[in-house]
Specification:
This protein is mostly helical. It is 62% helix and 10% strand. A three-stranded antiparallel beta sheet has the order 1-3-2. Helix 1 packs across helix 2, helix 2 packs antiparallel against helix 3 and helix 2 crosses helix 4.
Length: 196
Amino acid sequence: MPTPTKGPRLGGGPAHERLILANLATSLFEHDQITTTAAKAKRLRPLAERLVTFAKRGDLHARRRVLTVVRDKGVVHRLFTEIAPDMAERQGGYTRITKIGNRKGDNAPMAVIELVREPLSPKKATVAEAEAATKRSAKAKGNNAAAKAPAAKKAAAPISADTTETEVPVADEAESEAVVAQDSDNAADDTSNATA
C-alpha cells in the first residue's frame, strides 16, 4: 500500500477518509465554523478552499463537481448563492484555523475551522485604489509633458528674466497652462510696446 502523502490517514481507509472530509466540509458550509481536531482541520482546509473556488466559478459544471463531494443540495445551494459572493474579491484564504485547548477526554489538540466571510480590509482596498490613481496621474503627466514641450519652447524666447512665477508650485495642470498662456501674452505685449 502506498504511503499517504500528507500524514497519517484519517479513519480506517481511503474511502473512510473521503467520507469524513466530505461530512466535515458539509458541516463547515452549513454552519460557517466547526470545532474538530487540529489534524482534521488541516486536512479539511485544502478541500474546502477548492470547493469555494468552484463555487466562485458558479457554472453548472462547477456545481456538479461540488455535488460529488457535498451530497446535500441545500448546502451546495447555500455555498453558491451566499458564501461564494462574499468571497468574490478574495483571492484565496477562504478558511481560518484557530487552535484551542486540548480535548478533555483524550487530550487531542482541538481547533476551530471557519469561513472568512468578512470583506477585505478597507485599508488594503484604499491603498490599491491610491496606487491605481498614482499610476493614472503619472501616465497623464507623461502625456501632457510631451504635448507641452513644443509650446514651452515657443513661449520661452520672448519671456523676460522674471522667475518669481516659476517658483510658486501650481496644483492643477489646467492652471499651469493658463499661466503659461498669460505669460506669453504679457511678453508679446511687452515686445510690441518696446518696438512702438
